[in-house]
Structure formats: C-alpha cells, structure tokens
Amino acid sequence: MPITKILIRLARAVLDNVLSQLMQQFNVVEEQALSPMRNMIQQVTDGIWIGEGANAFVEEVSNLMIPGVGKVGEQISTINTNLQFARDTIDRADEEVDRLVKGRIFDSFGFY
C-alpha cells in the first residue's frame, strides 16, 4: 500500500476521532449545562421559589445563561459539520486519486 494511502487513512481516522470527541462535548454541554438550567427554571416557575429574586433568577438564566451555553453548542455543531465536510473531501480526493492512477496505468500499459 502506498504511503500516501496510509497517510490518508490515518488522517481520516484522526478526523473520525475528533468528530467523536466533539459530539461527546456537545452531549456534555446539553446534559450537564442546558438540561439542569432548564430544570431549575421549571422548578422555579412551578413555585419552588417565588418573589422578585425568583423572577430575576429565571430572567437571568433564560436570557443570559441558556443562550450563552446554546451558542457553545452551536459552535460545536458548526465545527462538527465543517469537519465532516473535510472528511468527505478527503474521501473524494482519495477516490479521485485512485481513479486517476488506475486510469493512467491502464492507459499507459494497455490493460483492458
């Protein structure tokens, strides 16, 4: 197997690992940040805490914290999409090189 093929497979494996790690981080953001904040808001709005402090808490978490954490999740998702595109580009390039090399070999040596 040519060294370039090995390097392409290695690059793809590394990229797949990065994609997996990114999705794990996205799940951490969702499960350990957004979900607990939403649960706290739900508990406060259900009456576990009432008054101006409770209203201010719900306002702050709803308008500052959740959108901020949501933006982190969106960035992770965007990076994931971009890396998937890169992986697909690597695959297409690898296939194209194989096709070109095989075509040239067959043309040059008259294999049919």
Q: What is the CA-based Rg, rounded?
A: 25 Å
Query: Biggest sheet, open or closed, and with what strands and sense?
Result: none
Beta-strand fraction estimate: under 5%
Share of helix among residues?
over 70%
- What does the overall shape look like? rod-shaped
Alpha-carbon distance between the termini? 22 Å
Poorly predicted runs: none
Mean pLDDT: 89
- Overall strand count: 0
Count helical runs: 2
Summarize the structure.
With 112 residues, the protein is mostly helical. The protein is built from two helices and no strands.
Task: Explain how this protein is built.
There is one protein chain. With 112 residues, the protein is mainly alpha-helical. The protein has helices at residues 3-48, 52-109. Helix 1 packs antiparallel against helix 2. The longest helix is centred in the last third of the chain and has 58 residues, at 52-109. It is rod-shaped, with a radius of gyration of 25 Å.
Attribute tags:
112 residues; mainly alpha; 2 helices; 0% strand
List the helices and strands and how they pair.
Elements: H1 3-48, H2 52-109
Helix pairs in contact: 1-2
